[in-house]
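Hi support team,

I submitted a single chain yesterday and got back a structure, but I'm not sure I'm reading the token output correctly. Could someone confirm the output below corresponds to the sequence I sent? I've pasted both exactly as they appear in my results page.

Thanks,
R.
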Amino acid sequence: MKKYTQLTSEQRYHIYLMKKQGFSLRYIAKTMNRSVSTISREIKRNTGKKSYRPKQANEFAQQRHQQKNKHIKLTAEIMGYISEKLKEYWSPEQIVGRLELDKKVKISTETAYRFVLQNKQVGGELYKYLRHQHKKYRKRYGKNDYRGRIPNRVDIDKRPGIVDTRSRMGDWEADLVIGKGHKGGFVTLAERKSRLYLALPIANKTAQAANDAITKLLMPLKHWVKTLTFDNGREFSWHEKLAKDLACSTYFAKPYHSWERGLNENHNGLLRQFFPKQMALDGVSEKELLRATDLMNNRPRKCLGWKTPFEVFAQMTGKDYFLNKSVALMG
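Hi R., thanks for writing in. Yes, this is the structure output for that exact sequence:
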């Protein structure tokens, strides 16, 4: 009998996006290689008063899980560990997971949150490091549908099935994050297996600017670039040059199917913790952006067995300079 594994926050985000698009539970289950009953149970158990939302679904699931955990008294060492990792913008769930992995100490996520609340009540400021994601998903409309303007575009349906399994290193998703008033932006890249997340500022949304940024980020890692998946923006119309320079294949998600690049979409949302949507990005330096992505790549992930993207990428590739927070990528 196949062992059941809990859904991750990324998978719940995937369910949310596809449900917003109106897809059936059967189709959602198929894209996730899960049973229909799993998806149905997830939505039924973790839907709030208004609708199914990934953040709230995670909270409901955590609350049920916490009831099974025994609380232990927090020592000075554990409180120091929680404080240190909060200041690196880890979530309480990530702190608890990594605490068990590294120090073999098991506490509940609720205990970590309670510590933060108690700290706030005595005038502490640890609560300021908690991430708050209350913004609703906004559907993108036709202005981003440039299928007719992208030469030799290859649809995601032609992408090898192995990419969906996340069983190999080298399958990347690309996107743009744009500043308020279209002032500045970032090219962002997410590697599907390790969840490694890279970004570089760009001055404008031209195809050349996007091409140059992606090349700069991925050329040092050329050996671990097998596919690139884009949305349908004109800024990715130089995909054939990228494919040639990086010796990889390029694919495009279907218009309005942002869930097909759910990993990158989710990471872009996390990046907004450091660079909010109401912020112009033309003044952000490479160093500032690298610091933010370093913090993200040093967060342990439940889907990685509480290892960090840096650790998984280094383990798979031998590129241990990531672990030292080298600025080699930005050199």
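A quick pointer for reading it: Confidence is low (pLDDT under 50) at residues 133-148, 323-331. Let us know if anything else looks off.

Best,
Support desk
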